[in-house]
Amino acid sequence: MELLHNREPYEAYLAANPGSKYALYFPYGGSVGLDLSLTLGLFEITWISISEGMTTRSTSAKVYKRTDTTIEGGSIVTLSAPYKGGWIAAIVKK
After folding, report:
1. How many degrees, rounded to 5, is the angle at CA 90 between CA 68 and CA 8?
2. Cα(5)–Cα(47) distance, integer angstroms
3. Fold of the domain spanning 4-93
4. What's the whole-number mean pLDDT along residues 58-86?
5. What was the pLDDT predicted at 28?
6. Does residue 60 or residue 73 have the better pLDDT?
7. Does residue 60 register a pLDDT over 70?
8. C-alpha to C-alpha distance for 91 and 33, rounded to whole angstroms
9. Cα angle at 9 between 8 and 11, to 5 degrees?
10. How far is CA 91 from CA 5, 10, 20, 44, 64, in A?
11. Beta strands in 1-94 (DSSP E)
């Protein structure tokens, strides 16, 4: 089963324990769909900046675009990196 949708070549990479945990890596920013259609429930997202070495649950609109801290399973969810550069989204079921 393909878990990433609307992915450009080299845009994003995924390591997953489907239904439980996901690590989504954006080397240069970007936006992709993550298929959570077979998993109901709430997921918590923590964004990690590769270049800054910092974690953030939500971001300031002054520096990065605002991001959700949770997403709902049961569909394909679009995730967008907060800014250019390398980002990891750590996604864990609550």
Report:
1. 80
2. 20
3. Immunoglobulin-like (2.60.40)
4. 78
5. 94
6. 73
7. no
8. 13
9. 65
10. 16, 20, 8, 6, 19
11. 4-5, 13-17, 21-26, 31-35, 42-49, 54-56, 70-72, 76-80, 87-93
Which residue's structure tokens are 């489907």? 18
Residue 19, class by beta-carbon neighbours within 10 Å (0-12 exposed, 13-18 middle, 19+ buried)?
A: middle
Could you tell me which of 64, 19, 63 has the C-alpha nearest to residue 40?
A: 19
Mean pLDDT of the chain: 88
Find out whether 46 and 33 touch, Cβ atoms under 8 Å: no
pLDDT digit string (tens) for 77-91? 999 998 888 999 999
Please check the confidence at residue 39 and state whether its pLDDT lies above 70.
Answer: yes
CA distance 47 to 54: 8
- The full length of the chain comes to 94
